[in-house]
Specification:
The protein is α/β, with parallel strands linked by helices and 253 residues long. It has one domain: Acetylglutamate kinase-like (Carbamate kinase, 3-Layer(aba) Sandwich). The chain is 34% helix and 17% strand. It has a 9-stranded mixed β-sheet with strand order 4-3-5-2-1-6-10-11-9, with helices on both faces. The radius of gyration is 17 Å and the shape is globular.
């Protein structure tokens, strides 16, 4: 494993489901501990690290809408779920000695600072891990879109999307044994092939701002560090499908 980070500032997108572990819903604190250890190791290498966490271990707006719940209401419930997850991660990281801040797009002054771009930048520059909760603060937007938006706002050099599979496939690899894993894709290929790794709003936002997306698996221990060090794992989505190197400090956005 490379010991030198390939980037100066990254945004890590975690789904709420990764905190569920073996539980049917809610938070598995053993999983929180494991994830916290991985993120803290990255930050200890001097990498400015922001984290966007989803709330799917509690509720998903689209699924709730399908059974009759008002979509906006369901999405706000999901935003509250992201707050629970952010506080769990904060506790896990601070138990390891890391300095963190939770910034929320919805008001929750007793437990989190309001999301203000300049404040988030200041915390990153001071070496604090910034955990971003509350989605965008608006219904009908996913936390993938939140991750793309915040990564662009905060000047991240890459969006690291951690998933349950080791990259982007042509089909669901758990259902189709012939599914092919892509090593590199252009944004338009993701949209044209309807590869559902992120929603179209998130992909389009990254494309417009030339923000690379690295999709990789969390199932292998140490993969967050490998992704941060620019190792050849997962699938890289970015401008210019013919590029042969990953963007890093010298490549950037």
């Amino acid at each position: 494993m490379s010991s030198k980070p390939a980037y100066r500032r990254v945004l890590l997108k975690l789904s709420g489901d990764v905190l569920r572990g073996t539980e049917s819903a809610g938070v598995d604190f053993a999983r929180v501990k494991t994830l916290s250890e991985e993120v803290v190791r990255v930050a200890e290498r001097g990498l400015e690290t922001a984290v966007v966490i989803g709330g799917g271990n509690f509720i998903r707006g689209g699924q709730a809408e399908a059974v009759g719940m008002n979509r906006a209401h369901a999405d706000y419930m999901g935003m509250l779920g992201t707050m629970i997850n952010a506080l769990a991660l904060q506790d896990g990281m601070e138990r390891l000695g890391a300095e963190t801040r939770v910034l929320s797009a919805i008001k929750a002054e007793e437990v989190a600072e309001p999301y203000i771009r300049r404040r988030a930048l200041h915390h990153l520059e001071q070496g604090r891990i910034v955990i971003l909760a509350g989605g965008t603060g608006n219904p009908y937007f996913t936390t993938d879109t939140t991750a793309a938006l915040r990564a662009c706002e905060l000047g991240a050099e890459v969006l690291l999307k951690a998933t349950k599979v080791d990259g982007i496939y042509s089909a669901d690899p758990e259902k189709d044994p012939h599914a092919r894993r892509f090593k590199r894709l252009d944004y338009m290929e993701v949209l044209r092939l309807r590869l559902r790794v992120m929603d179209t709003t998130a992909i389009s936002l990254c494309m417009d701002n030339r923000l690379p997306i690295l999709v990789f698996s969390l199932r292998r221990s140490g993969n967050i560090m490998r992704a941060a060090c620019g190792e050849d794992i997962g699938t890289l989505v970015g401008p210019g499908i013919g590029e042969k190197r990953r963007p890093g400090r010298s490549g950037g956005r």
